[in-house]
Amino acid sequence: MMRPRQLQVILLLWVFFGASSRALGAPQDKPNPAELRKSIELFESVLNQSLAQEFDGPFQTLRGARGAYLPGYGVVFSFEVNLTPLQNLGPFSTAPTAKEEQAQREMEARRREKALNLAEKVLGDFGQTLNQIPPGEFVTIVVHTVAAHPGKIERSTIVLSAEKKLLDARLSHAISQERFVQKLSRTEY
């Protein structure tokens, strides 16, 4: 049989751990949905305007930036960029030479780098517009790329993530844009 003192200690521990686990599982600051929607739309607008300036012309961007809030994670934006210049891939077009293929691959690499730099710059310069997300959450930009080659389509994805505290440090100029870019989480596949 359990002594009353042991029972009190067990109950006290149960209450303490139960309350702390609920506090850890509960969102700390629940964002205001209307304000969050406005800030997401503003960031989308900035990202789309930047894309239009950097990738002008028809079929340069295949899908404009769109954002969504994922409770407990943060905000995710994605867009899709065409890496291949507009060309005739019809049945009567001539096959590219090895030199032309090499030049096209180099251009695709430059356009991919341009899309990555654009995402890093917008995230560093305008990430603070998403001030509604709670501490500990992230702002992520997913860059999808597409390159068309005779007989195949090549796709790749770049994922850039910044935690709210990193965005706050950039906003307060505690870190430079270069340091901000170094601290971003980057995944490529």
Task: Give a written overview of the molecule.
The protein has 189 residues and is α+β, with helices and mostly antiparallel strands. The chain has one domain. It contains 5 helices and 5 strands; from the N terminus they run H-H-E-E-H-E-E-H-H-E. The protein has a 5-stranded mixed sheet. Strand 3 and strand 4 form a beta hairpin. Helix 2 packs antiparallel against helix 3. The longest helix is centred in the middle third of the chain and has 29 residues. It is elongated and about 60 Å long.
List its traits.
189 residues, elongated, 47% helix, alpha+beta, 5-stranded mixed beta sheet
What structural category do the secondary elements indicate? alpha+beta
Multimerization state:
single chain
Elements, N to C (H/E): HHEEHEEHHE
Instruction: State which percent range the strand residues make up.
Output: 15-25%
Distance between the termini: 60 Å
Q: What ranges have pLDDT less than 50 throughout 5 or more consecutive residues?
A: 11-27
Count of runs of 4 or more consecutive helical residues: 5
Count of distinct strands: 5
- Gyration radius (Cα, Å) is 24 Å
Strand order of the largest sheet: 1-2-3-4-5
